[in-house]
Specification:
By secondary structure, the protein is α/β, with parallel strands linked by helices. The protein contains 18 helices and 24 strands.
Length: about 600
C-alpha cells in the first residue's frame, strides 16, 4: 500500500529518502513527504501528487540533516491533499510519524485528545499517533512509544522521530511489512526491499510486535515488555527489478499472495469484537434508513461485476431486499426502473471506470440513493456517490484483478450482514457464525498459498488446451464466472463459465474428449445436483478438475483431479474457491509464455466507453 523509508547515519538523509521513495513508486500513491532533523528542529516537506512534485517543491532548499523519514501515501483516511500527506507531527513539531495501515480506534483517541486541547490539521488516523506521543511523553522516547502502542488498535507499520532524542528512529509493525537495512555507520528502514537494495543487502525482517531502536551505529530490537530479541540477518539475493515484486516473478503473483493481508485490512475496524456484529462508521445507517428502500441495484464492469453477483446472493439472503445486478455499460441504455426507493451500489476498483461512473450519474438523476464500493480514496466515483465504502486492497499493478476482487467480496458480505442486522432479517446465530468464519479467512488463504504445487501441475498439463469450461451452481456459478475471466484475460485460452444446470441447454454440445472442465462444488444445498452435472461431462470424456471443501472424499471418485479448500461455511466459500482459479490462470499463462502483468489489448482502468 503506502511506502515507508527511514535513514540514520553520517550522510545527508534527504537524498536517500527521495531515492528510496522512488523505488517504491510501483506500489502506487497519491502524495509524498519527508521529515529531516537538523539543529533542534524537524523540518517536514510534503505535497499531494507524484514524487516529482515534491522534488520540484523543495528544489534549492532540500532539508539538511542526517536523520529522516519519508512516505508515499495511498489514501485511506482523508482525501489526497497536502494536509493529509505524511509525515504527520504534533502541534509542537517535536514528534513526527509515518504510518502504513489502519488505526481502528483513532476516532475515540482523537476525541479524547481534542478534549485535552489538541488541535488537528488533517483528516487522517495517523496524526492521532503524533499527538499521542506528545501527550504521553515521559522523558523517554522508547517508553513513550510503548505506552502509545498499548493504546492503539489496528494494523500498522510505524516509524517515529523525536526532536528531543534526535539520534535515533524507532519503528514497529503489526500486519504490515517493515524491514531494517544494515549498513556501516548508517542504517535504513523501509516497508519493502527495493528502497534499500542499492545501499545494503543485509537486512532484518521485522515480525509483528517487535520494536526496533535504530541509530547509525546499531539496531536494538525488543518486544513491548522490553525483552531483547535476537534477529537473524537476511541476505537479499534478488536483483533490483525482482525486489520491486518482492521476489515474485510477476506483480500478479505478488498480489495473489497479498490477499490475506488485503482482506484483513478491509475487515479491520468493521468486524466487531462482538460476535455477529459488523460496523461501518462511514455509513451510520439506521433501520429507518431502509424502511423505504424497495430495491437494490448493483452495477459494475468485469471482475467488479462478478463481485456484484456474489453480493446479490448475500444481500437477498441476509437483508431480504430484491437485488438486480447490471453491467454498467448496459444499465443506462435500457431505461431502468429506478426511483427514490432504490439504492444503487456501484463497484469499481479504480473509482474511475467510465461506464460505471455514467451509470452512477444516471441513477442519481433518477433519484436513487447511491453507495460506492471502491479502492481509491478521492476517485471520481467516490466523490460523486452519496456515500462510499473503501476496500483496503492497496494498489494493484497487474492488469488482471485479484486482491481487489476478494476485498470487494468481503465488503459485499459485510454490507449484507450489516443491513441484515439493521433490518432484523438476519438470524442472530447465523450472524455470529458468519463473523466467526470471516475472521478465519486470512489465515485459511495463507495456508492455501503455502502449497500450490498441485495447481502448477494442472496448469502445466492443461495449459496447452485452447478451450476450458467452468461450471457451478448458486454461489459457485458466480465464482466460476470470475475463474473463466481470469483464464482468458492472461492465458488467452477460450474459457466460458456456465450455471451447471444449463449444460443440457446447449453447452453439452461443446464438451468433448480431453477438454478441461473446472467444476466448483462447495455449496452443500446443491452439491448432489452439481455431482450429477460433473458425471455428465465425464461421460463425454472431459477432464474434470473439481474445487471442493476439505473432508469431501466422495468427489474424488468421480473427478479426475480435486483441489481442496479449507472447510468453511457456504457463504464464505467464494473467498477461498477463487484462489485456486487465480493460480490456475497464472500458471497456465506462464506455461503459454504470456505477458502475465500486461495482457494484450487490456488496460488496468477503463476510462472510456
Amino acid at each position: 500500500m503506502c511506502g515507508i523509508v527511514g535513514y540514520v547515519g553520517d550522510k545527508q538523509a534527504a537524498p536517500f529518502l527521495l531515492d528510496g521513495m522512488s523505488k517504491l513508486e510501483y506500489r502506487g500513491y497519491d502524495s509524498a513527504g519527508i521529515a529531516v532533523y537538523n539543529k533542534g528542529k524537524i523540518t517536514i516537506e510534503k505535497c499531494v501528487g507524484r514524487l516529482a512534485d515534491l522534488r520540484i517543491k523543495i528544489k534549492g532548499h532540500e532539508p539538511k540533516g542526517t536523520v529522516g523519514i519519508g512516505h508515499t501515501r495511498w489514501a485511506t483516511h482523508g482525501r489526497p491533499s497536502d494536509r493529509n500527506a505524511h509525515p504527520h507531527a504534533d502541534e509542537s513539531g517535536q514528534f513526527v510519524v509515518v504510518h502504513n495501515g489502519i488505526i481502528e480506534n483513532y476516532l475515540k483517541l482523537k476525541e479524547d485528545l481534542q478534549a485535552k486541547g489538541h488541535k488537528f490539521l488533517s483528516e487522517t488516523d495517523t496524526e492521532v499517533v503524533a499527538h499521542l506521543l506528545a501527550d504521553q511523553y515521559d522523558g523517554d522516547f522508547e517508553s513513550t512509544v510503548k505506552k502509545v502502542l498499548r493504546m492503539i488498535e489496528g494494523s500498522y507499520s510505524f516509524v517515529f522521530m523525536c526532536a528531543k532524542e534526535p539520534d535515533k528512529l524507532i519503528c514497529t509493525k503489526k500486519d504490515n511489512p517493515l524491514i531494517i537495512g544494515l549498513g556501516e555507520g548508517e542504517n535504513f528502514i523501509a516497508s519493502d526491499i527495493p528502497a534499500i537494495i542499492a545501499h545494503t543487502r543485509r537486512t532484518y525482517i521485522m515480525s509483528d510486535g517487535e520494536i526496533a531502536t535504530v541509530t547509525k551505529d546499531g539496531v536494538w530490537v525488543q518486544n513491548i515488555d522490553g525483552v531483547p530479541i535476537t534477529k537473524k540477518v537476511y541476505e537479499v539475493t534478488w536483483n533490483a527489478e525482482a525486489a520491486e515484486k518482492g521476489g515474485f516473478q510477476h506483480f500478479m503473483l505478488k498480489e495473489i499472495y497479498e490477499q490475506p493481508k488485503a482482506i484483513r485490512d478491509t475487515m479491520t475496524g468493521r468486524v466487531g469484537k462482538k460476535e455477529g456484529e459488523i460496523t461501518f462508521h462511514e455509513l451510520n445507517w439506521t433501520k429507518d434508513a431502509f424502511a423505504d428502500i424497495h430495491k437494490i441495484y448493483i452495477v459494475a464492469c468485469g471482475t467488479a461485476y462478478h463481485a456484484g453477483i456474489v453480493g446479490k446472493y448475500y444481500l437477498e439472503k441476509f437483508a431480504r431486499i430484491p437485488v438486480e445486478v447490471d453491467i454498467a455499460s448496459e444499465f443506462r441504455y435500457r431505461d431502468p426502473l429506478v426511483d427514490s426507493h432504490t439504492l444503487m451500489i456501484v463497484i469499481s476498483q479504480s473509482g474511475e471506470t467510465s461506464d460505471t461512473l455514467a451509470a452512477l450519474r444516471e441513477a442519481k438523476r433518477l433519484g436513487a440513493r447511491t453507495l460506492a464500493v471502491t479502492n481509491v480514496v478521492g476517485s471520481s466515483i467516490s466523490r460523486e456517490a452519496q456515500q462510499v465504502v473503501y476496500t483496503y486492497a492497496g494498489p494493484e499493478i497487474a492488469v488482471a484483478s485479484t486482491k481487489a476482487y476478494t476485498t470487494q467480496l468481503i465488503v459485499m458480505l459485510m454490507l449484507a450482514i450489516y443491513v441484515g442486522n439493521l433490518r432484523g432479517t438476519l438470524d442472530k446465530t447465523l450472524a455470529k457464525q458468519l463473523t466467526q468464519d470471516l475472521k478465519k479467512i486470512p489465515e485459511q488463504l495463507h495456508s492455501m498459498l503455502e502449497n500450490v504445487d498441485q495447481i502448477k501441475v494442472f496448469a502445466t498439463q492443461y495449459g496447452s488446451c485452447e478451450d476450458a469450461f467452468f461450471l457451478g451452481r448458486s454461489l459457485d456459478y458466480a465464482v466460476a464466472l470470475e475463474g473463466a475471466l481470469k483464464l482468458k484475460e492472461i492465458s488467452y485460452i477460450h474459457a466460458e463459465a456456465y450455471a451447471a444446470g444449463e449444460l443440457k441447454h446447449g453447452t453439452l454440445a461443446l464438451i468433448v474428449e480431453g477438454v478441461p472442465v473446472i467444476v466448483l462444488a462447495t455449496q452443500a444445498d446443491v452439491y448432489p445436483k452439481t455431482i450429477s452435472n460433473l458425471k455428465e461431462v465425464k461421460a463425454r470424456e472431459a477432464i474434470v478438475i473439481a474445487i471442493a471443501l476439505e473432508g469431501d472424499h466422495d468427489i474424488d471418485k468421480v473427478a479426475d483431479n480435486v483441489i481442496y479448500i479449507p472447510k468453511t461455511g457456504k457463504y464464505l466459500a467464494p473467498l477461498l474457491a477463487v484462489l485456486p482459479l487465480q493460480l490456475l490462470a497464472y500458471y497456465a499463462a506462464l506455461t503459454r509464455g504470456c505477458d502475465v502483468d500486461k495482457p494484450r489489448n487490456l488496460a488496468k482502468s477503463v476510462t472510456v466507453e
